[in-house]
Amino acid sequence: MKHIRKAVGLSGLVSIIASPALAQEVMSLDEKVNSVFASITGPFVNLIFAPFPGTSFPWIVMWLVVAATIFTLYFGFVQFRFFRHAIQLVKGDYADPKDAGEVSHFQALATALSGTVGLGNIAGVAVAVGIGGPGATFWMILAGLMGMASKFTECTLGVKYRNEYEDGTVSGGPMYYISKGFTERGLPGGKFLAILFSIFCILGALGGGNMFQANQAHAQIAGIVGDYPGWLTGIVFAAVVFAVIVGGMKSIARVTEKVVPFMGIMYVGAALIILFVNYDKIGWAFGQIFEGAFTGLGVAGGFVGALIQGFKRAAFSNEAGVGSAAIAHSAVRTKEPITEGFVSLLEPLIDTVIICTMTALVITISGQLMADPATGLYMLNGNHIATVDGNTGVALTSAAFGSAISWFPYVLAVAVVLFAFSTMISWSYYGLKSWTYLFGEGKKTELVFKVIFCVFVVIGAAANLGPVIDFSDAAIFAMAVVNIFALYFLMGIVKKELFSYSTRLKSGEIKKFKN
Amino acid sequence: MTTKLVVGLDGLSSGDKALEYGKKMASLIGDCEMVLLYVIEWSPYSFQTPEENAERHKRREQEIELAMSRIVLPAEAAAKEAGFKARGIVRHGDVAGTLDAVAVEENANQIIIGRTSDGGFASWVVGGVPAKLVMNASVPVTVIN
Predict the structure, then answer these.
(1) Which residues pair with A387 in a beta bridge?
(2) Which CA distances in Å does A138 have to A28, A125, A386?
(3) Residue B6 β-bridge partners
(4) Of A114, A167, A426, Cβ closest to residue B58
(5) Which of A418, A421, A90 is nearest to A264 (CA)?
(6) For A259, which residue in chain B has the nearest alpha carbon?
(7) Nearest to A169 among B40, B49, B55 (CB)
(8) What is the pLDDT of residue B38?
(9) CA dihedral A351, A303, A378, A129 (to 10 degrees)
(10) Which candidate in A158, A218, B8, B92 could, as Cys together with A100 as Cys, close a disulfide (CB 3.0–4.6 Å)?
């Protein structure tokens, strides 16, 4: 790490920028960053993605699926029973006018969504479909629907056990509910698990919440303006992120927070237009999704390959069970923590079931994935499906949208940069909360994390997609290992809250303020 | 029965004019209480960063305290000194909607506001606070020029 920091030091950068003769050196810098990064993170990645003995099925994917299934059953399909109520809460039907000016359910949901809707929906889906074929979409949707119950569980606990400080600020998230909840239930090890979660959350913030974003934003820009060293994008991104999180330039973040939702709507709108224009292929595309889900249609690993990719990308995109959303949702002002749980279950629905499916359908319909006309099976290039221009990740999504709307890659580039930026801002906060949980509140402590976060932006933009995506996934899934383990011990508390709330809702004790 | 007037304050001369008119009305009515209301424009559907959310409660308290100490309490004290019954309130929300909601809540007889100088595209499309109140308020509205 010291070596990397030295390599991108200020004097080094100035000389590289000033002298085109050093271009060769610049290219080797990216490669050097990549190889150092891959060798450091390799063992951690291998541990998280270790397959069950004798199979190619990673245990971590099963861990997430089993948890989402257990929560779905344990709470009696809460995601479907309380779906309408969740919408009413977001609309503000149950909001006490006296609480006006506090964080509303809508705001908490929008903030959490700006941390999750982003590259996972654009690049992540392309990775899933590019490896697992259209069939991965089916498993992604299923994981999204089940993940709603995981999100409900963690966000309810996030609000219930948050810290409210005397100055009126709040801090919440798995580290708080794990330590407090375990103590309340008289269980040992709460503090240890909370610390472990915080460490993984910091790694997740630096990986999926930072490096993956910087990496894919660079790929998108380079795809349009031509190839150039990744660290240049990294430096620019790091400077802007630094200005916001260290320099306190909230105006940049505020503008992004306002523009991102419109970009999201625009993205879905463009996908809908493409689907509308190609309405005759929608039936075929769904056919590919269903057939691929159970046969694989020739992808590496068959239907298991499709399943693994679908579940992996869904978890990476909507972060259900990971615990990050619980940090974002814990700021809401409510007397009933469970209401935030209901609201949060909309997140995987919007993120995965709606937006990710749109991306997958557009990629499938665009014909970017190459299939053998004789057999109907997809053609492989290594473990990937061969694509028309050899594109993977965000470049594949861009090409798919570009094949229908020629100028859309430019809009997508702007969207990707903004999505990446807003996700980074959100994750810098999640990472910071874990950091302060470990090292205590204080300006100096916070500054150390913020500077590290900015350094990782540069590393992420300079490294290749492979090692970055592996580390991003591994770090985020490591959070889920601890979080879900703790949720099994704390889900009884949520069930009591659910029973109490639903009884009072049915009896009319909980009233609407708006009709 | 005490007549209640909701007077909209905005920290500008338009709010002062509304208060002056309110005092004139109160002295003509006799048994009258003025509810001096300052609304901090706020929407539950705006977008915020996680950090802003975490600090929102603290900021809200600060905003209320600031509006109270700089606008509402001085106006309330001046009105009381002049012999009027007056009570100050600060609320967050949509200005027109909150003025009306407080008027209903307080069982007020009238809302008095100054003509605001809010312009721009939004007020051209959906109308300013006076226009919204005149069209939608549950009680009579007086707009002071």
Answers:
(1) A369
(2) 41, 12, 21
(3) B35, B111
(4) A167
(5) A418
(6) B47
(7) B55
(8) 95
(9) 10
(10) B92
- Please indicate whether, in this complex, the C-beta atoms of A111 and B55 are within 8 angstroms of each other: no
Handedness of CA B26, B29, B33, B39 (dihedral sign): negative
Write down the pLDDT at residue B20. 94
CATH number of the domain to which B107 belongs: 3.40.50.620
Mean pLDDT of A458-468: 77
Q: Minimal Cα distance from B49: which residue of A?
A: A111
- Interface mutation target, options B37, B40, B48, B90, chain A, most CBs of A under 10 Å: B48
Q: How far is B90 from chain A, CA to nearest CA, in Å?
A: 11
Residue B141 pLDDT > 60: yes
Residues 6+ apart with CB under 8 A from B48: A103, A107, A110, A111, A254, A257, B56
Please report the pLDDT score of residue A382 as a whole number.
79
pLDDT attached to residue B21: 95
ipTM: 0.86
Yes or no, beta carbons of A328 and B46 under 8 Å apart? no
| Domains along chain A with CATH numbers | 51-507 (1.20.1740.10)
Least CB–CB distance from B48: residue in A111, A167, A333:
A111
What percentage of chain A has pLDDT greater than the value 70? 91
Q: Which amino acid is at A378?
A: Y
| pLDDT at res. A123 | 82
The answer to whether the beta carbons of residues A303 and A290 sit under 8 Å apart is no
Give the integer Cα–Cα distance in Å for A179 and A53.
Answer: 33
| B65–A contact, CB cutoff 8 A | no
User: What is the pLDDT, as a whole number, of residue A416?
Assistant: 84
Tokens of A86: 């969740």
B63 has a chain A CB within 8 A of its CB:
yes
Q: Strand, helix or coil at B110?
A: strand
From B44, B49, B101, residue closest to A104, measured CB to CB = B44
Q: What is the dihedral of CA B13, B14, B19, B21, to 10 degrees?
A: 120
Would you say residue A247 has pLDDT above 80? Answer: no
B61-78 tens-digit pLDDT: 999 999 999 999 999 999
A261 shares contact with chain B (CB less than 8 Å): yes
Best of B42, B43, B45, B51 to disrupt the A interface (most A CBs within 10 Å) is: B51
Q: How many whole angstroms separate alpha carbon A452 and alpha carbon A431?
A: 11
Tally the domains of chain B: 1
Q: Would an 8 Å CB–CB cutoff place B56 in contact with chain A?
A: yes
- Rounded to 5 degrees, φ, ψ at A235 are -65, -45
Chain A nearest-CA distance from B111, in A, is 19
pLDDT at residue number A11 = 38
Whether A471 shows a pLDDT value over 60: the answer reads yes
CA distance to partner chain A, nearest, from residue B24 (Å): 31
Tens of pLDDT along B19-61? 999 999 999 998 999 999 999 999 888 888 888 888 889 999 9
Tell me which residue in B44, B50, B93 faces A106 most closely, judged by beta carbons.
B44
Greater model confidence, A266 or A185: A185
